[in-house]
User: Fold this.
Amino acid sequence: MAETWLVVGLGNPGPRYEATRHNVGQMVVDELAARRGERFAAHKAHARVAETWLRPGAAKLVLAKPNSFMNVSGGPVANLAKYYGVEPERVIVVHDELDIPFDTLKLKTGGGHGGHNGVRDVAKALGTADFPRVRVGIGRPPGRQDPADWVLDPFAATERATLPSLLGDAADAAELLVSDGLVAAQQRFHAPR
Assistant:
């Protein structure tokens, strides 16, 4: 039986937040589902889920978007991991990252949460921080704008022009992480472009 990976896009629920920087993780998971012609359905773990495959005969992918707000993402993620029998090392969390410039990706497993409350809550609920992450750079706010307001703003027009490419790269990175491992994905996506 092919191994199962849970790929979770962090964000906030509802139309108010759909196009905001904080929801870029969910946008990446939407891209992964769109590539496979999959639709999300409600799941009892308080999330929307699409079950698919990396490619025929390869790993099973459970794409998920918690219905909870970002700061309490851990419960749905832990419940999905338990439901599908997925260990933390195969739970990929895709999320926005203030400390990475816009249009840049970084991948890692483990480490701190860097002040990201969604990642903090997932680590707490899983009982470990040792899960892979696709960190999608949104950059820091200009001037003195509060980062909490910045992440809840929609992407600027100049960013929206580049956003499809960034989402595609992040989806590619998640797929490569599943197929070839973390180091291979880091080597491809951490290289200067």
In short: The chain has a mean pLDDT of 94. The radius of gyration is 15 Å. The chain has one domain: 4-189. Residues 30 and 38 are 9 Å apart (CA to CA).
